[in-house]
Design a protein that fits this description.
By secondary structure, the chain is mainly alpha-helical. Helix content is 63%, strand content 10%.
Length: 230
């Protein structure tokens, strides 16, 4: 098990859009805490979370309002199921998002983030179209950020807390190892989920779809020659 702590990739400008996204996710979660848990589980998450089966019905011509399908694709990106869900996502966004925003600029970064989130959501729908479990969380969009970082900063050094059985240590590892290992874990976990379906859990395929979308998008949007430091 490993946990990245900081990286050494330089940036030229303050990542204010990244901080806006972190702040918005945090504010929404703090508002969630003010709501009764039963109301969250029975009303908020099913309404504002992405339900794959609902999207599948719409795609096959069932007369469901467009807003009931489109709006949750975006609102689901800002809902979280608990403190660790929020903290884990926001830490990864904080650690890797600033450099991706630096490459793209503030406005394009926001469009990139939301676009990766949409593709992540649709990947999850395609992988499990009959699921009635609402998908929530920013991890699909953040996976796109990780994919972009993997392409443009593969040799950046990442100080990482590594757990070895009952011991832990600190290693400086290249980003491609950290993010490549993360992607492999998502892939293996997704394959296991297909073989042993359960009632709920982690949206592994959203992570995979977001990561691949981020890789492709950053490759198309930013010329490699500008980022030799990588």
């Amino acid at each position: 098990m490993f946990f990245p702590l900081r990286d050494d990739a330089p940036r030229r400008r303050f990542p204010w859009m990244n901080w806006v996204l972190i702040g918005l996710n945090t504010v929404v979660f703090l508002y969630e805490l003010e709501l009764p848990s039963r109301y969250l589980e029975r009303v908020v998450f099913p309404t504002l979370g992405l339900v794959p089966y609902r999207v599948n019905l719409f795609a096959h011509g069932t007369p469901i309002g467009l807003a009931a399908v489109i709006v949750p694709v975006f609102t689901s990106m800002f809902l979280h199921g608990g403190w660790w869900h929020l903290i884990g996502n926001m830490w990864m966004l904080y650690l890797f998002g600033d450099n991706v925003e630096d490459l793209l600029g503030h406005g394009r970064y926001l469009a990139f983030y939301l676009g990766c989130g949409v593709i992540a959501a649709m990947t999850q729908v395609a992988a499990d179209p009959h699921s009635l479990v609402p998908t929530i969380g920013a991890s699909g969009a953040i996976a796109g950020v990780l994919g972009a970082y993997f392409i443009r900063y593969p040799r950046a050094r990442v100080l990482t807390l590594v757990f070895l059985l009952v011991f832990f240590t600190f290693w400086e590892l290249p980003a491609w190892i950290i993010l490549g290992a993360w992607f492999l874990i998502q892939f293996l976990s997704g394959a296991s989920a297909l073989a042993h379906p359960a009632a709920g859990g982690v949206a592994w395929f959203a992570h995979l779809g977001g990561f691949l979308a981020g890789m492709l998008a950053i490759w198309l949007l930013t010329p490699r020659r500008r980022y030799a430091r990588g």
